[in-house]
Design goal:
Elements: E1 11-14, E2 18-25, E3 31-36, H1 46-61, H2 65-69
Antiparallel strand pairs: 1-2, 2-3
Length: 74
Amino acid sequence: MLVLSRKKGESVIIDDNIEITVIDVSENGKVKLGINAPKSVSILRKEVKKAVESENREATRKVDMGALKGLKRP
């Protein structure tokens, strides 16, 4: 893991096409970031990604495999 220090208004460039800029740092230590990246790059907060993955795993457990066997392929 690369650990960097940045001040408000400073940026980090990743792979020549992703720029992460520190927009603001509040008194309580909360950091606001701006991310400029191509639309093809997926950007999610980690907790959202984990929640989606968990829900996807749960959904696959509820599938009735017997019902799927009756489906015909196109």
